[in-house]
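User: Could you check the structure of this?
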Amino acid sequence: MKIRRTYLSIIPRIFLSSHNHIRTFSVYSVRNIKEKCAKFHNKNPLVSNCFIYGGITGFTELTQQTVQLKLVPYWTDKELSSYDLASLARYTCLGLVVFAPVLHYWYRFLDRKYPSNTKIVVMKKVALDLIVLGIPLYAFFYAFMCGLEGNSFQQILKELEKKLLATLLAGAAFWVPAQTINFRFIQPSARILFISLCTFIEVNILSVLKKMDFDD
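Assistant: Sure, the predicted structure tokens are below.
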């Protein structure tokens, strides 16, 4: 009887010890993964950014399609009966080979050209980002996506004529405050994380605009 009581008293200790070991291992594993990711990003920032943006743009389109399928099955007149894998691939490709390299070198140029974060410098960066980068990048977004969809040059021009101005206005409304925060308060080393979160929101907006029919 005494042995049984001793055995039963040991069980909670064994369980608590195992739980502490598992928790310590989990914390160490997460910390180790974070350190390896940070090390890889520091050594290969362009490759890291490409994977991040490619993943974000692809995931954004996935969320759009999930909304269409599960929550609101009527964004447009076209019914979506299943996930459009081709569209997912197009948006992933957009982030991987277009947005990521362009934004990587663009922000590196701006930070080297204007290293300060004073109000005047921030205003210059925001204006340059919106005018010098924003207009051609949004135009290329529609041309690139329409080209991958197999549209003709005339169809691409029609798409730009219908949607580019609305996209620029929506982009300005979103990015002016976002980039003001970015250039004013975010350290260059943490810029990619902040921009990634903003990009998720923006690409959702672009995805909606791309699917909308402006003729109605």
